[in-house]
Amino acid sequence: MLSVLVSLVESVAFSHVVAALSALYLFNYIQKIQRPQLHCGEGKWKNKLTTGLKMLQEPYYPTFWLYLSHANTVIGNLLKKQESASYEREILHLSDGGVLALDWAHAKEPKSIVMIIPGLTGNSQSNYICHVVNKCVLQGSTVVVFNYRGTCGVELRTNMTYSATWKGDVAEAVKHVRRECSVPLIAVGSSLGGMILLNYLATHGADSGVDFALTISTVFDVMKSAVEMEKSINKYTLNYYLARMLVGQVERHTARFESIADMEATKKSRTIRDFDINFTVKVFGYKDVLEYYEDASNFGRIPIIQTPTVCLNAADDMMSPADALPTKLAADNPNVAMVVTKCGGHLGFCEGIWPRGSNWADRFLSELVTLVSQDGLVD
Known about the structure:
By secondary structure, this protein is α/β, with parallel strands linked by helices. It contains 14 helices and 9 strands. Strands 1-9-8-7-6-4-5-3-2 form a 9-stranded mixed beta sheet, sandwiched between helices. Helix 4 runs parallel beside helix 14 (360-375) and helix 8 runs parallel beside helix 11. The longest helix is centred in the N-terminal third of the chain and has 31 residues, at 2-32. It is globular and about 75 Å long.
């Protein structure tokens, strides 16, 4: 009889614990359901966005069981259904003798050209890129995906790969695409691609050749990002995964780089910072990783960007923490709009009960492209 009572008490206690934890989870989830915050200087661009983008007026409802940052980032991307895109490949010959691939997906009567610059280890075949490409083509935009040197099956012909500060290749690609462009050119940069794009826009000012720009989950303060990514779970999951992907991209070029970088140390890199110390700093001629990270950070470049730009970030992005977002600087620049969701992780932005299709960021991109393709920047 006593054992039955003990079991009953334990059962009731367990039920209370489960109920309390569930209530806490639900409470935290509800706190995340908010409209995106918009930080932008007063002017035509802000008016265009506030009147034309419905998604800025509606709350973002993250997937109930994936709203936590790591789940949104990792599981959300794993669940996303696999898509492929149909491309026509063009090899762009660069001024220093290097080459890269521009993969084109054509719309019949394009209203705009969307140039996509992928993330750290992404390319035109990456699933998240294919989702965006197909969505843009379906709504009437031609898409060109910029593939970094030595990636996506293209031979590396020089002792130069790519980095967060190497904007020369993007400059040549924009100039090339612009020659064929009689419709608005919209540049989209994901993560690392966004860092390179913002650097390019800040450097070229009114002569960027880009009509509109969007960055998604980009990093603005690289040192803060590195510190955050080396904390506990981040270090042994996403950081480790990305570092090993980077190692895989360069180790096949060991013979080319062994006189420039410590390739044996590079192959042992376990974090992105390890890789940058052993490889990136040496190849791109920086004194040390601190100098490289300072040069790669776009926080201070926000005030000088003249191209109408939207920077979409989640406040819980482990690669770009909320205190490293230049919201105040964006609020003083009428050309830059920072859109910040309460959650979304890094390139996650899951929504719906079973997030297999396009995510919230994909829909935001689609709505923005439609808006600026129609009549450009007016009123």
